[in-house]
Design brief:
Oligomer: single chain
Number of helices: 5
Strand content: 15-25%
Helix content: 25-40%
Number of strands: 6
Strand order of the largest sheet: 1-2-6-3-5-4
Radius of gyration: 15 Å
Low-confidence stretches: none
Length: 150
Amino acid sequence: MSALRMLNTQQAAAELRAGAVIAYPTEAVYGLGCDPANEQAVRHLLALKQRSPDAGLILIADNYQRFEPYMGAVTEPLRQRALASWPGPVTWLFPRAATVPDWLAGKHPAIALRLSDHVLCRELCAAFGGAIVSTSANLSGQTAPRSSAE
């Protein structure tokens, strides 16, 4: 196991671009994240969590436009309801684009998206230049960590 390293957002974004899985604080718990376009990184994250790829993953971003590659046809009422609650800790299900692979969205016709209001999450997405996978940093079915020590 590698040593824990504290990274600034630019370094963390570079790690994401290089295919790494990173841990970082989110609105409520510590999360694991990776580049949603990198199958190897997503599969590594799923293996770390011991989570089935069928479940699908949440993507977070700092602005709505970053979600566009992942969304299929979105109705205006759905878009307006989501935007009225964002940024914030609310996750919405959007129709997934035909190009979104099962290893990212699972076996679902939708993809889970959250426009975060957490400063570090927003900075990380901005530095990365896109949406990132965000899931709690625990083994599947166990309690999510609320600190870096956990």
